[in-house]
């Protein structure tokens, strides 16, 4: 039996058990050992932060611009990107997730990594470190020991919320909206409504910077399959492999383009990567994917920069 079948079965079982999120955390932390912040993880996330900042500056055609308010959707386990924005001097960051995944131990380890990089002088090569922000990082590290996650992040001007992002109806307009490998885990209709809400919140110079992973995420666990594995399966069959702990919407890049356009955004730049020039041997497209253009179907990663479209007359 393929390894990814086993993972799908395990996660599917965990998802229906009481305390499924806690059980999944313990499994990933102590069995698969994937939830341990490392220098490689930190550098990957700092690279992601740099791209978001560069995208913002590109969109505004302003090489030294810095957003004052950032909204991140999809906090996940480790809030690397919000911390990087805080250290770069952003005045207010909101990071929001429908499920609270961050744990005290994980945040302690994450803050320790940032402090280690700062002590080495390496952190400054990755981000434009704002004055006095290292002292805030030290305060956050102390507060996570004596108080909690919320209070520690507040020391860095980060507001962590556990709620549905569509409920943010009265939020002051963010300058920059960011997501990091999040959109692919959101059902299409929900993502449409999120982008519609973003358009209501955005001001005329707001920027969206989104990193989207369009691969079958089981490939990260089972190297015998390709990033296009899930294109083999009809929606009815795929339901057996999909689960709330690692939901995958299987949308293709053309779907995302349509979602931006439908909800009042204009794509300024789209940078796509493809794992292959043609579909690998053995991939037989399910009927749901037969209508896609081959070049759109093959995209496995995309960086999208979007801005509010001009109102139609």
- Rg over CA atoms, rounded to whole Å, is 20 Å
Unreliable parts: none
- The SS-based structural class is alpha/beta
- Order of strands across the biggest sheet? 3-2-1-4-5-7-6
Tally of DSSP helical segments = 12
User: How far from one another are the termini?
Assistant: 58 Å
User: Count the strands?
Assistant: 7
Cα shape: globular
| Helix coverage percent | 40-55%
Into which percentage range does the β-strand content fall?
15-25%
Order of helices and strands: HHHEHEHHHHEEHEHHEHE
Mean pLDDT: 92
- Largest sheet composition: 7 strands, mixed
Tell me what you see in this structure:
With 313 residues, this protein is of the alpha/beta class. The protein has twelve helices and seven strands. It has helices at residues 3-15, 20-30, 39-60, 80-87, 104-120, 123-126, 133-146, 149-154, 188-201, 235-238, 253-262, 294-297; strands at residues 69-73, 92-97, 158-162, 176-180, 207-213, 265-274, 299-308. A seven-stranded mixed beta sheet has the order 3-2-1-4-5-7-6. The model has no long low-confidence stretch (mean pLDDT 92).
Topology:
Layout: H1 3-15, H2 20-30, H3 39-60, E1 69-73, H4 80-87, E2 92-97, H5 104-120, H6 123-126, H7 133-146, H8 149-154, E3 158-162, E4 176-180, H9 188-201, E5 207-213, H10 235-238, H11 253-262, E6 265-274, H12 294-297, E7 299-308
Parallel strand pairs: 1-2, 1-4, 2-3, 4-5
Antiparallel strand pairs: 5-7, 6-7
Helix pairs in contact: 3-4, 5-7
């Amino acid at each position: 039996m393929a390894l990814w079948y086993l993972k799908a079965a395990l996660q599917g079982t965990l998802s229906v058990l009481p305390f499924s999120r806690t059980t999944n955390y313990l499994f990933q932390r102590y069995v698969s050992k994937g939830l341990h912040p490392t220098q490689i993880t930190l550098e990957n996330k700092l690279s992601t932060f740099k791209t978001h900042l560069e995208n913002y500056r590109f969109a505004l055609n302003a090489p030294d611009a810095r957003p004052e308010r950032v909204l991140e959707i999809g906090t996940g386990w480790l809030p690397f990107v919000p911390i990087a924005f805080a250290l770069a001097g952003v005045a207010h960051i909101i990071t929001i997730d429908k499920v609270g995944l961050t744990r005290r131990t994980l945040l302690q380890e994450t803050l320790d990594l940032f402090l280690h990089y700062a002590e080495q002088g390496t952190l400054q090569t990755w981000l434009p470190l704002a004055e006095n922000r290292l002292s805030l990082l030290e305060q956050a590290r102390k507060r996570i020991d004596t108080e909690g996650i919320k209070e520690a992040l507040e020391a860095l001007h980060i507001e962590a919320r556990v709620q549905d992002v569509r409920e943010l109806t009265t939020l002051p307009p963010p300058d920059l909206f960011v997501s990091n490998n999040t959109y692919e885990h959101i059902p299409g209709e929900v993502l449409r409504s999120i982008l519609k809400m973003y358009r209501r919140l955005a001001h005329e110079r707001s920027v969206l910077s989104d990193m989207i992973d369009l691969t079958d995420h089981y490939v990260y666990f089972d190297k015998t399959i390709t990033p296009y594995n899930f294109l083999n399966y009809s929606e009815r069959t795929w339901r057996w492999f999909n689960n709330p702990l690692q939901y995958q919407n299987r949308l293709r890049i053309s779907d995302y383009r349509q979602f931006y356009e439908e909800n009042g955004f204009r794509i300024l730049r789209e940078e796509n990567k493809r794992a292959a020039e043609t579909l690998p041997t053995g991939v037989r497209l399910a009927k749901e994917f037969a209508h896609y253009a081959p070049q759109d179907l093959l995209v496995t990663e995309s960086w999208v920069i979007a801005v509010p479209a001009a109102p139609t007359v």
